[in-house]
Specification:
This protein has ten helices and twelve strands. The chain is an alpha+beta fold. A six-stranded mixed β-sheet has the order 3-4-2-1-12-11. It has a six-stranded mixed β-sheet with strand order 5-6-7-8-10-9. It is globular.
Length: 364
């Protein structure tokens, strides 16, 4: 009787492990679903780390109690290798950065507000950027409307500085560039959005014209109460009807945001295809996780520098309960990226900066 009970328990757990793998795999490849056609299903990529952890828990369980069953979770990791390598790249070896490579920093500075930790938020960001000594700095929420002296500080380090504002009436938002290289021209990439946008700068880098695209795409529009509810659901502190009701609210909000973000992503992808004659560097806050249509769509036309050269989770959004990378650097095939990383040593924003080295013509 006891033996039969053990056998039944093992079979039930093995079945649960297989179901976990099926769901994890489906979610891992859900980034192919356009939010325009599948607004709710396209948001399930946010749950990928949860099922990844569950499968890991099964692996540890089988190691301890039934070693010969470890093939099940290992098979799951193998089947989901592609989304796993996107969510947490496994590039173990640090690359040697060649001479002549350019250092790039992309940073959502949250309007230089200091993340409720620093009274002099701008000064903390400025000191960090000056110490990093990057060749190209792309800033999101580069809002200089309430303290006009920001450019005066940047000009001490960078000869060329420019910001394009998207909205100055409600909540000001803009993207900016601060660089050593001359700006030949710039333009905004047209798409519909109240408070977000993308801009393109053409830089003279030696004999090359480098096209730099800086973006701040549609946010999640999750209010603080919704964020708190999300954290409670993940921790298992909210259950029953309340958890189901809050989950539905979250899905509705996220799917609406994703539906607005998708055409913005498509507009930028079209712009990239129309300007393929230039080496292209794309930076910005996608407001979307690695297992998303946004990242997948951009990765179809450019190289995700973190997925190609980074290591580990790379959590760029530093608010508790949201274990995601939502800030990215991409480059075209005629640019080689090196050692892309999320720099967590500065917490003057609700984002961490993303840093990468690039070499134009590095793939030749």
């Amino acid at each position: 009787m006891i033996k039969q009970l053990k056998t039944f328990t093992v079979q039930m757990l093995a079945g649960a492990n297989l179901v976990t793998i099926i769901v994890m795999t489906l979610i891992g490849y859900s980034d192919r679903l356009s939010p325009s056609d599948h607004p709710v299903l396209s948001c399930f990529g946010m749950t990928f780390p949860l099922f990844l952890l569950i499968n890991l828990a099964f692996l540890l369980f089988w190691v301890v109690f039934k070693f010969r069953m470890i093939w099940i979770p290992l098979l799951g990791f193998l089947i989901s290798y592609v989304p796993i390598s996107i969510y947490m790249p496994l590039n173990l070896r640090k690359q040697e950065v060649p001479e002549g490579a350019l250092k790039v920093v992309s940073y959502n500075v949250c309007g230089y507000g200091g993340n409720y930790k620093y009274e002099q938020g701008f000064e903390v960001v400025r000191d960090y950027l000056f110490a990093e000594d990057a060749d190209i700095v792309c800033i999101q929420e580069d809002n200089d409307t309430w303290r006009r002296y920001c450019f005066k500080h940047y000009e001490k380090k960078y000869a060329y500085n420019d910001t394009i504002m998207f909205n100055t009436d409600l909540y000001p938002n803009g993207v900016g560039i601060h660089t050593r290289f001359p700006i030949i021209r710039r333009e905004r990439i047209p798409y519909r959005s109240i408070n977000n946008g993308s801009a393109a700068w053409y830089l003279q880098v030696g004999n090359d014209t480098l096209l730099v695209i800086n973006n701040h795409f549609e946010g999640t529009h999750l209010k603080q109460e919704a964020r708190s509810a999300y954290r409670e659901i993940l921790k298992g502190e909210m259950r029953g009807d309340t958890a189901r009701m809050e989950s539905k609210k979250l899905l509705v909000t996220l799917s609406e945001s994703a539906s607005k973000r998708a055409p913005q992503i498509e507009a930028v992808c079209r712009y990239i295809k129309e300007h393929r004659q230039y080496p292209i560097l794309l930076c910005g806050d996608l407001n979307d996780n690695p297992i998303s249509y946004s990242r997948h769509r951009l990765a179809e036309v450019l190289t995700d520098c973190y997925a190609a050269t980074g290591r580990g989770l790379g959590l760029s959004y530093n608010q508790k309960g949201f274990p995601f990378r939502i800030d990215y650097i991409f480059c075209s095939s005629d640019i080689h990226p090196y050692n892309c990383k999320i720099d967590s040593k500065i917490d003057a924003s609700d984002h961490y900066p993303i840093v990468c080295w690039i070499k134009i013509g590095g793939n030749d």
